[in-house]
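Q: Got a minute? One more chain.
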Amino acid sequence: MSNTSDFYLIQADKCATDAAESALSQVRDRNLRAEQAWRTMAERLIQTEATRARQVAAAAAKAEANAEANAD
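A: Always. Here it is, folded:
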């Protein structure tokens, strides 16, 4: 399975559910830590994808500007 933000968020939700259902404090704490880790990974991936999209758009705009300048 590919590492997508949706996958990370699903895992985080599962950990949150497991934490809420746990009667043992150590298991609950472990699941809460895991939930936070999954959410952090999702946030980082979302930021990375947004940065990459901005870079691609900027490169495309620059290439278009160069093509227009060379056409004149």
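A: The chain has one domain: 5-71.
Q: Perfect, thanks.
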